[in-house]
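Final report, closing paragraph on structural work. Over the funding period we assembled a curated collection of sequence-structure pairs, and we close with a single example.
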Amino acid sequence: MRALICAASLLGLLTAFAWTSSPAGAQDDEKPTIKQIMGKLHKGSKGALNIVKAELKGDSPNWTKVETEAKVIEKYGAFLPKAEAPKGDQSSYERLAKAYSTSAKTLESAAGDKDLEKARGASNKLGASCKSCHTAHRPN
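Its predicted structure, as stored:
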């Protein structure tokens, strides 16, 4: 009987841990929405791209922080070309999303190499991509 209670308790703890360790029912194979991606990368001072841009303003950025955030940008940027265009032509959306993803990869590579000019260029390219994509594909 004692073994049964211990086993049930252990199972309960494992279930609770598994449930709380992933966000509200999210699975590893789920794709984030465009809104979630934009929030993670661009929203406020904690947005990954905003953190990178702030670090790259100086001559001696915190490369550890830049690398960490660049990996986040690359990870989430890779989901954009897989998403459905919320508005407008899908092929146009895919072209713009792939360009964003490519710039995110360039930023990650530059951060890893600690190449300030290349990182700034990729960061600027990512920031400049907003208007054209939003104009054509962001719902009102």
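The first helix runs from residue 2 to 21. The chain has one domain: 31-137. We thank the funder for supporting this effort.
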